[in-house]
């Protein structure tokens, strides 16, 4: 019984180890491969070299739009100073990228959420969150985005990004978020 288990284990393990050993390369094999393919000393930039693998797959316009959309979704938060709704110059490039995307795709809409930290009354924070969202919308409208593409909402202190009660957490909660 014990012998059967060992034989079955070896029957599975040996082919796997053989495949793993075949797939590894040493540094000398890699260097030899570079010399034969022309990607070593006389690569694509060297005199007399031949560029290998220069043809790349072209993306369709829909794939390009999807890729750009995913990149923008990764970076869609604008932070504000305490009790302020002015947009810092550090976010100009980010907002220009979003505005460029929206002007090139007039069928895309964005929701701009305004958020605050927990200091202040709920009423004041709702108004401050709205001012922050409107400031972002006005900035983007100045960059050519149609007002019909943008909607704003203020959550005030209701949806914090960080639940801690530290200055860093409060700074993370003072924000506007672009949601596609």
Describe this structure in words.
With 180 residues, the chain is of the alpha+beta class. It is built from six helices and four strands, in the order αααβαβαβαβ. It has helices spanning 2-23, 27-37, 61-74, 92-104, 122-142, 167-173; strands at residues 77-79, 110-115, 150-156, 175-179. A four-stranded mixed sheet has the order 1-4-2-3.
Q: Report low-confidence residues grouped into runs of 5 or more.
A: 27-47
Order of helices and strands: HHHEHEHEHE
Number of helices: 6
Spatial separation of the terminal alpha carbons: 61 Å
> Quick one: biggest sheet?
4 strands, mixed
Return the structural class: alpha+beta
Report Rg.
Answer: 28 Å
Topology of helices and strands:
Layout: H1 2-23, H2 27-37, H3 61-74, E1 77-79, H4 92-104, E2 110-115, H5 122-142, E3 150-156, H6 167-173, E4 175-179
Parallel strand pairs: 2-3
Antiparallel strand pairs: 1-4, 2-4
Helix pairs in contact: 4-5
Which labels suit this protein?
180 residues; alpha+beta; four-stranded mixed β-sheet; 6 helices; 49% helix
In short:
The chain is α+β, with helices and mostly antiparallel strands and 180 residues long. The protein has six helices and four strands.
């Amino acid at each position: 019984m014990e012998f059967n288990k060992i034989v079955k284990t070896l029957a599975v393990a040996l082919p796997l180890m053989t495949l793993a050993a075949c797939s590894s390369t040493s540094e000398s094999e890699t260097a030899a491969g570079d010399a034969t393919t022309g990607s070593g000393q006389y690569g694509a930039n060297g005199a007399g070299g031949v560029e290998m693998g220069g043809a790349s797959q072209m993306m369709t316009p829909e794939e390009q739009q999807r890729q750009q959309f995913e990149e923008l979704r990764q970076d869609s938060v604008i932070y504000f100073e305490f009790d302020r709704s002015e947009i810092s110059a550090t976010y100009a490039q980010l907002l220009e990228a979003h505005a460029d995307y929206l002007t090139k795709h007039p069928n895309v809409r964005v929701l701009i959420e305004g958020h605050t930290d927990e200091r202040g009354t709920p009423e004041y924070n709702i108004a401050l969150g709205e001012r922050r969202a409107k400031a972002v919308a006005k900035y983007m409208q100045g960059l050519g985005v149609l007002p019909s593409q943008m909607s704003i909402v203020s959550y005030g202190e209701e949806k914090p990004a960080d639940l801690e009660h530290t200055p860093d957490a409060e700074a993370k909660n003072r924000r506007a978020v672009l949601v596609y």
